């Protein structure tokens, strides 16, 4: 689905992404790991249109999508999750989800005056969809809770939920499990697996926890110093000499190799 070819992203003289090439297969849950500073987040930001690459190409289903802005990629079904912005924290979970799809009729003055019936109907549809999403994520009980009151893990679930309000094809998750307790991490993992299996979502996820990566991801891609170092199953990656070497000196144990 996604093909990245010889991608570079330089910040001044620093090569954060330094000639990375990789593929994300349709229907996969692809893991992206590597030591801190390897360029993983920068790579995500270039793919998702948040940053312009210095050089190289990103293709989606064969089309060149290099440098397209996030809202254009959004309409192509390529999404990356974002933290709930401060201004949305006083809105309820349900309202947060209802905000997601753009281009609602209610947004223009013309429509506000002349198409009241249609707006009411769209709101009804959105409300139903938001409740379905909350149900899927097993957080229906939080529908009227303000987003700002959620725990870290519940916020991550809501972020994932926002990708379900549109027809996402591929979702990029950057450290979705960071700071999340075991129980909620399992809930998030289950939601990702179900979205993959039942709704056909493709995922690419950066994650610290190797157990979590191992449970969800195949293949796993390892980045180091802006380049792709290795790719394989979690077991292949853990046994790979070059990968082990890249992690040496970081003082981290195997379980949390990132
Ligand atoms: N906007 C920026 N300006 C300058 N350097 C940056 C910027 N963003 C990231 N970097 C640097 O690029 C390197 C890769 O960062 P990042 O992609 O966040 O790595 P990772 O997500 O793998 O930990 C780091 O050394 C970081 O300091
Ligand atoms: Mg990062």
UniProtKB/TrEMBL annotation:
<dbReference type="InterPro" id="IPR027417">
    <property type="entry name" value="P-loop_NTPase"/>
</dbReference>
<dbReference type="GO" id="GO:0005524">
    <property type="term" value="F:ATP binding"/>
</dbReference>
<dbReference type="Pfam" id="PF12399">
    <property type="entry name" value="BCA_ABC_TP_C"/>
</dbReference>
<dbReference type="Pfam" id="PF00005">
    <property type="entry name" value="ABC_tran"/>
</dbReference>
<keyword id="KW-0547">Nucleotide-binding</keyword>
<dbReference type="InterPro" id="IPR003439">
    <property type="entry name" value="ABC_transporter-like_ATP-bd"/>
</dbReference>
<dbReference type="InterPro" id="IPR032823">
    <property type="entry name" value="BCA_ABC_TP_C"/>
</dbReference>
<keyword id="KW-0813">Transport</keyword>
<dbReference type="GO" id="GO:0005886">
    <property type="term" value="C:plasma membrane"/>
</dbReference>
<dbReference type="InterPro" id="IPR017871">
    <property type="entry name" value="ABC_transporter-like_CS"/>
</dbReference>
<keyword id="KW-0067">ATP-binding</keyword>
<feature type="domain" description="ABC transporter">
    <location>
        <begin position="2"/>
        <end position="250"/>
    </location>
</feature>
<protein>
    <submittedName>
        <fullName>Amino acid/amide ABC transporter ATP-binding protein 1 (HAAT family)</fullName>
    </submittedName>
</protein>
<dbReference type="GO" id="GO:0016887">
    <property type="term" value="F:ATP hydrolysis activity"/>
</dbReference>
<dbReference type="InterPro" id="IPR003593">
    <property type="entry name" value="AAA+_ATPase"/>
</dbReference>
<dbReference type="InterPro" id="IPR051120">
    <property type="entry name" value="ABC_AA/LPS_Transport"/>
</dbReference>
């Amino acid at each position: 689905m996604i093909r990245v070819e010889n991608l570079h992203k330089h910040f001044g003289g620093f090569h954060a992404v330094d000639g990375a090439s990789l593929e994300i297969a349709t229907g996969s849950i692809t893991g992206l790991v590597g030591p801190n500073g390897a360029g993983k987040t920068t790579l995500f930001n270039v793919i998702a249109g948040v940053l312009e690459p210095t050089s190289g190409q990103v293709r989606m289903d064969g089309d060149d999508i290099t440098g397209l802005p996030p809202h254009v990629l959004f309409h192509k079904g390529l999404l990356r999750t974002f933290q709930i912005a401060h201004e949305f924290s006083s809105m309820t979970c349900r309202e947060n989800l209802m905000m997601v799809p753009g281009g609602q009729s209610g947004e223009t003055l013309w429509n506000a005056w002349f198409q009241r019936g249609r707006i009411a109907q769209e709101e009804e549809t959105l409300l139903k969809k938001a409740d379905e999403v909350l149900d899927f994520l097993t957080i229906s009980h939080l529908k009227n809770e303000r987003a700002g009151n959620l725990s870290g893990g519940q916020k991550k679930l809501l972020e994932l939920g926002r990708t379900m309000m549109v027809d996402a094809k591929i979702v990029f998750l950057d450290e979705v499990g960071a700071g999340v307790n075991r129980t909620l991490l399992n809930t998030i993992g289950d939601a990702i697996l179900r979205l993959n299996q039942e709704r056909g979502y493709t995922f690419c996820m950066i994650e610290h926890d190797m157990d979590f990566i191992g449970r969800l991801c195949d293949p796993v891609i390892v980045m180091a110093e802006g380049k792709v170092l290795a790719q394989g199953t979690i077991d292949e990656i853990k046994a790979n000499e070059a990968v082990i070497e890249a992690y040496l000196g970081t003082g981290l144990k195997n379980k949390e190799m990132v």
